[in-house]
Amino acid sequence: MIRKNEKLINRTQFVLDIVVLIFAFLITWYAMFGLHLFSNILAGRLSFYVYFKVILLMLPIYIIAFNFFNLYAPFRYSQKTEQIYRIIEANSIATLIFVVVLYFSKMMHYSRGLLIIFYLISNILLISERIILINVMKSMRKKGINLKHIVIIGCNDLTLELLERLSRNKQWGYSLLAIFKENGDKPLSSELSSNELIRKYKKYNIDELENYLKKNKIDEVFITLRLKDYEKLNQMIDKCEAHGVRASIIPDYFRYIPAKPYVDEMDDLPVINIRYIPLDEPINKFLKRMFDIVISLLCILIFSPIMIIVALSVKLTSPGPIIFKQERVGLNKKKFNMYKFRSMKQIDEKVNEKMWTKSNDPRKTKLGTFIRKTSMDELPQLFNVLKGDMSLIGPRPERPFFVQEFQKTIPKYMVKHQVRPGMTGWAQVNGWRGDTSIEKRIECDIYYIENWSLLLDIKILFLTVARGFVNKNAY
């Protein structure tokens, strides 16, 4: 029954997407030509039927793009933000293909303005449609409609973690019917036997599983066995599949793998990558590098008057060079010189490299305090971005001395060196900057590394601007 429901939901999404795209086109046409908001392009325009025919011909491209970005996959666990990102990515790719098709078909009179407005309106309508659908499904599941009937094999602390998540997320629509103890008649630990969530459900011995599956309609079985019990795993899966029941494993090693593991193959031998890094993909590397070059050049042009003023001010207010170069550790632990406007008095670099900047640091000049607080001292790093030593967005680079120290004391610290360091990052826009928790910064850096997308980079860039360059933790 649940699989029939999933098919029905998928078909509904498919039909709704087609209707929404056609409706987006009609709104765009009416806004541009019906209301004459863009009268300058009316002269010599193609007829409505030509535009409409092209849109209909392009609908399969949009649907294929939506399918490619998993927009028709079940969204039982899906967050709204994740769906929004997928819609924008899929719609952007489909629209880009649309532009390429128009170019090669030599439809030069097809309005570019209409295409831009259609892209914006279709994004808004598709996102609205998906959010409404998610909310409707969540509401139905909370009311007991479209529930998935499940059982759990295993009764241990891993089971408890699953139960806690199921309890917190009623909108997932799971109805747990029973728990099967993996150790037969062996009594549960006092911690498990006294837990309210464990006590709430009826428990059976593992020997009773096959008979239970015969007599009850079960949609899915969650297996939460400990590593020491994995010899039973194949037997459990065989029993589930013999009765046509889907089996899912909550691995005992999930703490060591990312939330979305990347599985590779070595001559049909599956290999789980402990950390999947999207920026290892050549296409993603290329997109990020192009983004860095275009935006850094644009920023250099925009901020060049400010950089000239700061450079002159540094020269006139204190002795020493305008640009301060300091060795930092970057991609693949490669060292490079990072540029900054000098904000401190000149001291021996061997002493300086082992000193952490603090509030009211006596080494800072008066001008230095201001340009550090406003982040203007970081502007020369735009040239580091152009050179390829850095990226606009990424984990902030650190000095070799501190890298060696943090490597000893902070687990996973060195993971940040698997991507290019950045001028700003997910940690910085979340307030972890300056003399703040290194552990929290690394958590943010790892989240960024594992969840990178061009949209996430754009989001961080906008948050950096929106929240201002002035930061209370910058000094």
TrEMBL record:
The keyword ATP-binding does not apply. Keywords: Membrane, Transferase, Transmembrane, Transmembrane helix. Residues 288-467 form the Bacterial sugar transferase domain. Pfam families: Bac_transf, CoA_binding_3. Its EC number is 2.7.8.31. Its main location: membrane. It is a multi-pass membrane protein. It is found in: Membrane. Belongs to the bacterial sugar transferase family. This is UDP-glucose:undecaprenyl-phosphate glucose-1-phosphate transferase. The gene is wcaJ_1.
